[in-house]
Amino acid sequence: MKSISTDNTKYHIRRRINFVSCFFLLLLITIVFRAGYLQIWCASSLSEKAEKQYEKSLSFYGKRGVIYDRNLKKLADTLSITSIGAHPRQIKNKKTAAQRLAGVLSESQSVIYRKLSSPKPFVWIERKVSPAVSHNARTLKLNGIVFKTEHSRFYPNKTLAAQLIGFAGVDGTGLEGVEFAYNNVLQGGNGKLTFLKDGRGQRFESPNHDKQIKNGYKRELKNGNDLILTIDRNIQYITEKVLAETVKKHQAKSGMAIVMTPQTGEVLALTHYPAFNPHAFNRYDKTQWRNRIVTDPFEPGSTMKIFSAAAAIESGQCSPNTSFYCEKGSYRIGRNTIHDAGSHSFEWLTLHQIIKYSSNIGVVKVVEKIGKDVLYNTLIQFGFGQKTGIDCPSETSGTLAPASKWKTIDTAAIAFGQGIAVSAIQLVTATAAIANHGIMMKPYVVKAITGESGQLIQSFSPTIVRRVISETTARSVTEMMVSVVRKGGTGVNASTDGYFVCGKTGTAQKINPDGKYAKDRFIASFLGFAPAYNPRIALLISIDEPTKEGYYGGTVAAPAFRKITSETLDYLNVEPDTSGAIDSGLTASLNRGPQG
């Protein structure tokens, strides 16, 4: 019995030994397999992770390019400026450091202390400080406080052309306007310098540090290219000054104005009121950043009548002397009644007089004669319902429904500028086509891209879009627009001493949230070009919701047109026009007045 018991004991011991041996063998195999997996399959990712723990890279950026006006006056530049940061782990007495820094910086002691107590290896204390602040902070000689040279965008003219130029953020990236649209052109190249960190997070140079410096990551970064705009700083200033005066005088909500060269499509001035200061863009409502001349559609009102007149003449179904009965100021279409503005009760008017006196009923009768398809096709030719292609971000195409969807009342409304939405850039580009003998040019704001040393990289030339109307039609419409600013016309307040000018008034009702037209909110506009027979500028003035001293385009916007035109033509040294007499035999009809 004793022998059997001994054998059983030995058997159980051997089983336990074998089990433990198998367990350790399996464990060893698992460890070997895991080690192999990490060493072979995960080597790359683990090495990268390790490098991140002991390597630190600093990025350096080249200087952002300069933005000039057409005469090489600076509109945006870049300055070198100092920012203050800290390595919290290197600062022993954070409370004392925070107290001393607060004495020279704009941040409070508590905010600085919170930053210095961060677990991060690096924090910014204050970005882009003045030279005086930087000097005072350096004199403190605090361990762990570092000073880094950065680039700060500078706009020497402050609010001038702010919505067009836009602005760049704290990291130097363009966020609005031309700064955004041409960010890849303006932004400088970047480089990287790598350092090693020890276990305490302190930095020491890597073996290839000297090689990196030699390769110029820090010292020879490529600066951004420069932009030369079509904008003329002086014309921009003239336009902004008059626009601001007009908005304030009539206690309006806002205003827009744009000046263009008809023969090239170059934008000479693009202005908004109120403006904003790009140095402190965060202090302004975001709606003020937007270039509304390009981005915002609106109903044009009676300025649209010149394009309806162009459609009628181009179709061959009407001449400027074709007469229409204007129903004594009230015309019913279905369940809708159309009225002429004010107390006008015209009877017979020629097409020429319909434009001069801005008769709603008259232009409706004209469009009824030519048909909706002719009107639609002409508006498409003038670029409405389409983007102009201007080199500014977020351009709207406006709204122009297909003619097949127009009801009778829609056709009538579109004829005098309701039921259609356009942008200011579309409107002035279409008008410039009339000034340019019927040829439409593509609008643009960037004239050239140049390198740091001034060498030309790319230039932008005038681009013909298409012929919109014949030269004869353009001449006839021009003569109608001249009559608008003569005695008896709705735009007589736009008449400019020494020059024949032409234009068209517009007074558009705004739409309420319920979709109905407001009775007390209007957009007052004036659209034209000058000199009438040798145009140097096309100009649009639009005033949103004037509330004082009238709201008609002829009362509010026409005087602003006169002031901008007079000062701009004087600045451009345009000789007074003494030979612009109308030569089409329509002089008599201009002065005859409404026919009974």
Task: Tell me, rounded to a whole number, the average pLDDT.
Answer: 87
Largest sheet: 7 strands, mixed
User: Could you say how many structural domains there are in total?
Assistant: 2
Question: Would you report the number of β strands?
Answer: 23
Q: How helix-rich are the residues, as a percent range?
A: 25-40%
**Within the CATH hierarchy, at the fold level, what is the topology of the largest domain?**
Beta-lactamase
Structural class: alpha+beta
Helix count, DSSP H or I runs of 4 or more residues:
20
CATH class of the largest domain: Alpha Beta
Terminal Cα span: 146 Å
Outline the low-pLDDT stretches: 209-219, 580-596
CATH homologous superfamily (4th level) name of the largest domain? DD-peptidase/beta-lactamase superfamily
CATH architecture of the largest domain: 3-Layer(aba) Sandwich
Strand content: 15-25%
Radius of gyration: 36 Å
Global outline: elongated
Features:
596 residues; alpha+beta; 2 domains; seven-stranded mixed sheet; five-stranded antiparallel sheet; 23 strands; elongated
Folded structure, characterized:
It is a single chain. This protein is of the alpha+beta class. It folds into 2 domains: 79-156 and 196-216, Penicillin-binding protein 2a (Domain 2) (Alpha-Beta Complex), CATH 3.90.1310; 233-275 and 293-592, Beta-lactamase (3-Layer(aba) Sandwich), CATH 3.40.710. 36% of the residues lie in helices and 23% in strands. It is built from 20 helices and 23 strands. The longest helix is centred in the first third of the chain and has 40 residues, at 2-41. Mean pLDDT is 87; it is low at 209-219 and 580-596.
